[in-house]
Write a structure and sequence with these properties.
34% of the residues lie in helices and 13% in strands. By secondary structure, it is α+β, with helices and mostly antiparallel strands. The chain has two domains: 8-225, no CATH class; 228-256. A seven-stranded mixed beta sheet has the order 2-3-4-1-5-7-6. α1 (42-51) links the parallel β2 and β3. The chain is globular, with a radius of gyration of 22 Å. The chain starts with 20 loop residues before the first strand and ends in a 9-residue tail after the last helix.
């Protein structure tokens, strides 16, 4: 794996309690990284990397539907039919569960055989996606750090099940940041995953990382715009508008 040298310490400015984790999807076994010694669901591997050494996994190491999502094998008819979750009460009818298998993001068959995980302080590869756990204040800064220079908006995509598809694969295939909130994924909830509810899980694809990291280094990102009260805010806002209306050429003959 070729590594792009980056200084990820800029994320320290957010005051994150948990280390961001880099994930890379590979067609071959990676060198210099040990294989994970226990089987896990892919959504759990994020935490495994935060707390331990870098590792890679292959098809036999997954416990859920990840091999289908990663294109390692064809999905079983019992899954695609919707019978599993559709008949368990998770969905009202089989058809609802069956439908989502038509559109959940997934890798092309045979393109991924191994997946590498590492926290940013131990990462020796250029990640395809960087995963961040943040509280509301930290998430506000992180989501703003893209819009700050691009003006692009953000959005969240997901389903109650197969959260790994949306958090790991969707950002890589679309080049768009994605996020969810702990407690929304029924899979994570079902296994009693120990992230506190209400935390943001944010996935940043590789193409957005340089811009976001550069903006996180800008002091203005951390400027607190919160006014002492609403009256102070609107008074300052309207004063600024009045000042600009007097100086902007567009207002010389406005309204026309």
């Amino acid at each position: 794996m070729s590594a792009t040298i980056r200084d990820y310490s800029v994320f320290d400015r957010l005051g994150l309690e948990r280390k961001p984790v880099g994930v890379k999807f590979l067609p071959d076994k990676p060198e210099g990284i040990e294989r994970l010694k226990v089987k896990r669901a892919m959504c759990e591997m994020w935490k495994e990397a935060q707390e331990g050494d870098p590792f890679y996994v292959q098809e036999e190491d997954f416990m859920c539907v990840e091999p289908f999502v990663l294109g390692m094998r064809e999905p079983e008819p019992v899954l695609q039919s919707g019978v599993v979750a559709g008949g368990s009460g998770m969905f009202k009818e089989i058809r609802a569960n069956r439908k989502l298998y038509q559109y959940v993001p997934k890798m092309l068959r045979g393109t991924v055989t191994h997946v590498a995980f590492a926290s940013v302080d131990k990462m020796t590869f250029d990640p395809d996606v960087l995963m961040v756990v943040a509280n509301v204040s930290q998430a506000r800064l992180l989501l703003r750090s893209d819009c700050y220079t691009t003006g692009d908006g953000w959005s969240a995509h997901g389903t109650p099940v197969i959260a790994c598809s949306w958090m790991y694969v969707y950002p890589v295939l679309t080049g768009k940041m994605n996020f969810t909130i702990t407690g929304l994924s029924m899979g994570l909830y079902a296994i009693n995953f120990d992230f506190p509810e209400g935390m943001f899980l944010i996935s940043i694809p590789w193409n957005m990382l340089p811009n976001i990291m550069e903006n996180l280094g800008d002091d203005m990102i951390y400027h607190d715009f919160k006014a002492p009260d609403r009256e102070t805010h609107f008074r300052g806002f309207n004063a600024k508008l009045d000042q600009l209306r007097k100086t902007m050429p567009a207002y010389k003959n406005w309204p026309v």
